[in-house]
Amino acid sequence: MIVRLKELLPGPRHFDLRFESGWWEVVNPEPDGQVLGLDGPLKVRLALSREGRYYAADGSLSGSVRARCDRCLEVYSHHVRSRFRLLLASPLPEPVAGDSALLEEDMSVEFLSDEEVNIDQLVREQLYLALPVKFLCHEGCRGLCSGCGANLNYETCTCPVPGGHPAFRKLEQLKVKMG
Ligand SMILES: [Zn+2]
Ligand SMILES: [Zn+2]
Hints:
Elements: E1 2-4, E2 13-19, H1 22-27, E3 35-38, E4 42-51, E5 54-68, E6 75-89, E7 108-111, E8 116-118, H2 119-129, H3 166-178
Parallel strand pairs: 6-7
Antiparallel strand pairs: 1-8, 2-4, 3-5, 4-5, 5-6
């Protein structure tokens, strides 16, 4: 969806959006492997308003993505929830006294090539920003055995564990002694 910013009135314009699973394939035509798609609808609330020489986009998103765990490679549902606020400027604005007050430290300004904002692209970027650097199906995921590839969440294997953490080796020795 394209919103023409010139047509925005000073007051905020609210969007209550819902992106269905198929949306991901449209905005992300080159699958990158980590995120396989949306898991159920992504709900986005967005308010666009004029603030001086900028346009502000305030919003929140919530939903789930189908992601691949970095440790065990299983696909799981990863919940995403975030709030965002960004400023849009078009074209590159000249610094004007008073404007700097708007620009808080952690605020990003996005420069538009024309007076339009592509909502799909904006939401996709915010969704990416809300994703973790490392996907874990759960905190204690044990991952795959580097020897035989067994998923250690479901099975134990008999591979020796060479070069494990020294603390664990010590624990093993202790167990042997006690046994
Ligand atoms: Zn995992
Ligand atoms: Zn193994």
